[in-house]
Design a protein that fits this description.
Layout: E1 12-13, E2 16-17, H1 23-32, H2 44-60, H3 65-78, E3 87-89, E4 92-94, E5 98-100, E6 121-127, E7 140-143, E8 148-151, H4 160-169, E9 181-186, H5 197-208, E10 214-218, H6 233-244, E11 252-256, H7 262-274, E12 279-282, E13 310-313, H8 317-331, E14 337-340, H9 346-354, E15 359-362, H10 364-369, H11 373-388, H12 393-396
Parallel strand pairs: 5-6, 5-15, 6-9, 9-10, 10-11, 11-12, 12-14, 14-15
Antiparallel strand pairs: 1-2, 3-4, 7-8, 8-13
Length: 404
């Protein structure tokens, strides 16, 4: 719910890259995957919590001999190492362009092991200054047939001070010397007014900046009342200016909603350029129901039109691509973009990169497809580079070449 060998030599079937085989992927396909093929059954949030509780202990003990050996086996199964996938963006060296999106590891408990899952980067959070329980349960729903999810978590997290302690306990290498880049996604505490939002964000970022390779200003979650008002140009500019005054501020990106009108997308692209933002992440979950208004949720009995929350997964793919293309057209080629939303295959990842994303992130697709999705995507990207005669993934960004 991120190889030494498996990357370059797998043969390609008519359906796409061959699925990696190994203990982890076999276990997931046999035991976890079937739980996710129906809306009802195992609670989605409890499954995530159980997974993270296990990974938290693994991350803390990753240098213990038995744990280290297990993680090395995991890395051999899931990592794809190839110099053609490497990039340097906003001062960060990415071993590959595929990352874990914010929302899964909210408190950074598994920060020390995401590289073993094959990810080039992982985004932790969303973290707020105040610890928050989030919205009442149930608040996470599977839509298995559509490979989608609805969530209204509400920035549930332990708060910035606790997250800092959690990260420090894991004894992570310093920024710039990690096997996977680590971003920190920062949000507004529910108790903070819009007027006081810049100081609320600044409190979190000032505390966590020394631990972050980059930071993300989350102004686009649909599950905190009033938060999306901060996407308005004057509000966002005030917020960015406040954060950039912090000492040793890490590279700053902003994450936007898929539901913005074109003129608002254009305004954010201009603001990012004018304020020197490191990049834009497109997109968060959607308040629109994307043709699924009458789809009924097993967890509540209500239709999607009746339920609050943000929709993620495969139905979001077309709109996420539209927003990314609009950003690229307005911002030009210099501003790094990160594409997220509905990426659950190598084809979807290539589509986003060819449209102008330097990096891509997965979450819902990774939950449904399992750990094998990471090497499948990276192997697929390498095959596209070969097919189109491109030397590096950087050359593929914005190339406009179709999936072949």
């Amino acid at each position: 719910m991120e190889q030494d060998d498996p990357g370059g030599d797998a043969t390609r079937s008519p359906e796409g890259p061959a699925a990696p085989s190994g203990v982890t992927t076999s276990f997931y396909r046999r035991f976890v995957g079937p739980l996710l093929l129906q809306d009802e059954g195992a609670d989605a949030e409890r499954l995530s919590q159980l997974t993270l509780a296990t990974l938290a202990q693994v991350s803390l003990r990753r240098d213990w001999p038995l744990v280290r050996d297990t993680l090395q086996g995991l890395a051999a199964e899931l990592q794809v190492r190839d110099a053609r996938l490497e990039q340097t963006l906003f001062g960060c060296r990415f071993s590959n362009p595929l990352g874990l999106a914010a929302g899964f590891d909210k408190n950074g408990v598994a920060a020390g092991v995401w590289d073993r899952f094959g990810f080039g980067f992982a985004e932790l959070g969303t973290v707020t200054w105040q610890a928050q329980a989030g919205n009442p349960r149930p608040r996470l729903f599977r839509l298995a047939a559509e490979r989608a999810a609805l969530n209204r978590m509400g920035f549930n997290n332990d708060g910035a001070q606790a997250v800092r302690r959690t990260l420090e306990r894991q004894a992570l290498p310093p920024p710039g010397r990690r096997p996977a880049v680590l971003g920190l996604n920062i949000g507004k505490s529910r108790s903070a007014s819009l007027e006081l939002a810049p100081d609320d964000y600044a409190s979190s970022l000032a505390l966590l900046a020394p631990l972050a390779d980059y930071a993300v200003i989350n102004v686009s979650s649909p599950n905190t009342p009033g938060l999306r008002d901060l996407q308005e140009e004057s509000q966002l500019r005030r917020l960015v200016e406040r954060l950039r005054r912090l000492p040793a501020c890490p590279p700053l990106l902003v994450k936007i909603a898929p539901d913005l009108e074109d003129d608002a997308i254009d305004a954010i692209a201009r603001l990012a350029y004018e304020e020197g933002l490191a990049g834009v992440i497109a997109v968060n979950t959607s308040q629109h129901r994307l043709g699924l208004e009458e789809r009924r949720l097993a967890g509540s009995g209500l239709t999607l039109a009746e339920e609050a929350g943000g929709l993620s997964g495969r139905p979001l793919r077309p709109r996420a691509l539209e927003v990314l293309r609009r950003l690229r057209a307005t911002a030009g080629p210099a501003l790094p973009l990160i594409g997220v939303g509905g990426i659950d295959s190598a084809e979807a990842a290539w589509e986003r990169i060819a449209a102008g994303a330097s990096l891509v992130q997965v979450y819902t697709g990774w939950i449904y497809e399992g750990p094998a999705l990471v090497p499948q995507i990276l192997q697929g990207l390498l095959r596209q580079l070969d097919h189109h005669g491109l030397r590096t993934i950087g050359e593929a960004v914005g190339c406009g070449q179709p999936w072949a």
